[in-house]
């Protein structure tokens, strides 16, 4: 099958620790897994660097096309809306010559451009939203920086798409609330690279007796402040946070400044380490160095960090939101904290710091769960069955690297 992935503001070639986050991991790893299954994948992303080649062939076998739309420099995800018309026009022209069997769009803006371009050629579009405007508005209220039209467009996209993929059961419920018929929604979770995120291997040095590790883009809704506020009740423990601004800029970053201020106010600044953006390949060493991995976002469509922690055999303490309701099993692989208060976080973390057997038991259960359910090959299989529902006539064809099509099964 010839698949066009559209990921307008997140390139699969970027590093996820800065602004790209989980969507980068998702698009790159899913594309690679689909190629391993014999499909041909091209990822379309906005050109944000004047020196980058228009087409790049990756080592994983998929191709990246850099779409000229707007200035060739990085733009915030809320700033690319005016360039979607240009982006969509490029896709429409490109697909007239090189027509994919199916388009898989990631995030609402990609979906908007993809829907317009695909309709001209009658190509089915599958959408993964990654995050929903309704949820963001609920949590951020007036501080929501998304374009005002986002929620309206998401409803329109969701009702027009051939199929919608939710990454968690929670997101599926949200989509139903938006008016998407249940039969047009499938849940295909995100996965984890089990060859990189594994219990065996080197680990980062630590400075205190205990270590809590947290990671993600350094934005307020990730709730890292809750982890900082819990520290006074967790003696002999350091909190290490990866993510956010790049390298030396970390001290200028607004959220890191806020977190440092909170750490000073709580008298724990010497035990909080903000690492800034860590390359994805260096992340497993950090997970392995921790006693507990802590995730306390306000909301989270999926949440790669808990899953990566589980794959490294670490217990996870997390807020009971989004994808974590599927990936983490309370009292088996980790602990849910509710309500999200510092004392509740400390109460959940403390037994794990004090009891190595509990850590190992929950870590082992998490590892078992991550490795048996969340490999990218499994996720690719779930995604392909959604493709089959969206495009029954086309999904049965596996295209090898040489491009010759051969039917492998009758699609259902
Ligand atoms: N990440 C990374 N370096 C960092 C911080 C995070 O590579 O310094 C990766 C992390 O390993 C995970 C992703 O970024 O794969 C974050 O995904 P998540 O779903 O937790 O959050 P998102 O950023 O998508 O909201």
Automatic annotation (TrEMBL):
Annotated GO molecular function terms are: glycosyltransferase activity
| Domain Glycosyltransferase subfamily 4-like N-terminal: from-to ranges | 21-195
Q: Which residues form the Glycosyl transferase family domain?
A: 211-369
Reading the lineage from the top rank, the first entry is Bacteria
UniProt entry keywords in alphabetical sequence = Glycosyltransferase, Transferase
Its name, as the record gives it, is Glycosyltransferase involved in cell wall biosynthesis
Keyword Cell division attributed: no
Tagged with keyword Protease: no
Question: Which InterPro entries does the record associate with it?
Answer: Glyco_trans_1, Glyco_trans_4-like_N, Glycosyltransferase_grp1
| Source organism (scientific name) | Nocardia bhagyanarayanae
Q: Which GO terms describe its biological process?
A: carbohydrate derivative biosynthetic process; liposaccharide metabolic process
